[in-house]
Design goal:
By secondary structure, this protein is mainly alpha-helical. It is about 65% helix and about 0% strand. It is built from 18 helices and no strands. It is elongated. The mean pLDDT is about 90. The structure holds iron/sulfur cluster (2 copies). The site of one iron/sulfur cluster (SF4) has 15 residues, from helix 6 and helix 7.
Length: about 375
């Protein structure tokens, strides 16, 4: 007699999916139009129809830990053509949000960060920490004279907060999440017969990782979309502005601690130009993306969940407060410049501290899923 496996629908998981924006998933009647129209789904075992079955049955292990969920770029071609209005794009988006939550460590942050009820708490935590530190250091006042942010929030204090976040918190918390993620997608691939070996062969996987980097930098998957093609340029703007700001932060760190050049720097300094250009690109990209989300694309295409919007607001806030800090410093408005700098640091803290638990984590998980897809022979490199 053939082995049979009893399928136990996880109704709590279905409820969680709906709460994350997949409220239409029950409408699906398995016509497969979505898998046919998806411009980036491989021909063999295409998505998202099979994920719609898993979502309807609440098969958590078939969605969380499914690399295909991450290969989806949320272009919504499938949702546009779905005859039932089941919005498969939103269902996969919700599955990604729950995957981020499932891999999160500490688990409590995985629950709090994507929960709209706690947005104020996420901002209140760094604000309170900063106020205590500034109060203890006797810096809770607007300094006199020429505006220098280090007079208000000394660089050594800023770095004593952000360096541990960057070199300890993110690598440890994200590292645990990534390990769980890779274990799960590999285990599923072995179970499906897509991967032969029990362990991932690291050199081969790293080669696959290098192989997908150009695809990500060119955003060529986004280019294949037809419905949300207009997300291509703003998405690129945000990606490259983050890369620019990453370079700027590291150069300024080296300038301060190795070259002993504390700044402020001339506006004509090439690194400063890169910083300002990145800030402008960040704001432009965020406003463009928000505008795209607000466009009416018919009732089949949703406008995203709190999970998506929280990242857009964070990115916009980061860019706007950074640029306003700089502009108000240049025109000498200390009563605005210093508080604005404080708020900017709160946004930066939120970006660093909550990175593994929110939408921004997709940057890493999708990159790894694309690399694994190549590694397991599911997709060639472009
Ligand atoms: S999600 Fe829509 S298009 Fe896809 S199988 Fe279900 S009903 Fe068909
Ligand atoms: S949202 Fe786009 S990429 Fe994702 S399954 Fe639908 S058509 Fe494919």
């Amino acid at each position: 007699m053939a082995d049979s496996k009893r399928v136990e629908p996880d109704l709590k998981f279905v409820k969680d999916l709906k709460a994350m924006g997949a409220d239409t998933l029950k409408k699906c009647y398995q016509c497969a139009t979505c898998s046919v129209v998806c411009p980036i789904s491989p021909e063999e075992r295409p998505f998202p129809r099979k994920e719609m079955i898993a979502a309807q049955w609440g098969l958590q292990d078939r969605l969380v830990g499914n690399m295909d969920v991450w290969l989806c770029h949320y272009c919504n071609d499938c949702s546009t053509y779905c005859p039932r209005g089941a919005r498969p794009g939103d269902v996969l988006n919700a599955a990604r949000a729950l995957a981020v939550r499932a891999y999160a460590w500490p688990a409590c942050l995985g629950r709090i960060v994507p929960d709209a009820r706690y947005w104020w708490l996420l901002f209140a935590i760094p604000a309170a920490i900063f106020l205590v530190i500034l109060g203890a250091a006797g810096h809770l006042h607007i300094p006199e004279g020429e505006i220098e942010f280090a007079k208000f929030f000394p660089t050594i204090l800023v770095d004593s907060i952000f360096v541990p976040l960057a070199v300890l918190w993110i690598p440890i918390t994200f590292g645990i999440g990534i390990k769980r993620f890779m274990n799960e997608i590999h285990t599923n691939a072995v179970a499906d017969g897509r991967a032969k070996r029990k362990d991932i062969v690291l050199p081969d996987f790293l080669r696959s990782l290098v192989c997908v980097v150009p695809t990500i930098l060119r955003h060529s998957k986004f280019e294949q979309c037809t419905q949300n093609k207009d997300r291509y340029i703003p998405h690129l703007l945000v990606l490259f502005s983050f890369l620019g700001l990453f370079i700027v932060t590291n150069v300024f760190f080296v300038a301060l601690y190795i070259l002993h050049s504390p700044g402020p720097y001339s506006q004509l300094n090439p690194v400063k130009i890169l910083a300002n250009a990145s800030a402008v690109a960040l704001i432009l990209g965020a406003v463009w993306l928000i505008n795209n989300r607000l466009k009416d694309r018919g009732e089949n295409v949703g406008r995203g969940s709190y999970f998506d919007w929280s990242l857009l607001i964070l990115v916009l806030g980061l860019g706007v407060t950074g640029l306003l800090s700089e502009l108000t410093r240049l025109v000498h408005l200390p009563a605005i410049a210093y508080p604005m700098y404080f708020v900017h640091l709160v946004f930066v803290f939120c970006l660093f501290a909550y990175l593994p638990f929110g939408k921004l984590a997709h940057l890493v998980y999708r990159t790894l899923a694309m690399a694994y897809s190549h590694y397991s022979g599911r997709e060639p490199c472009e």
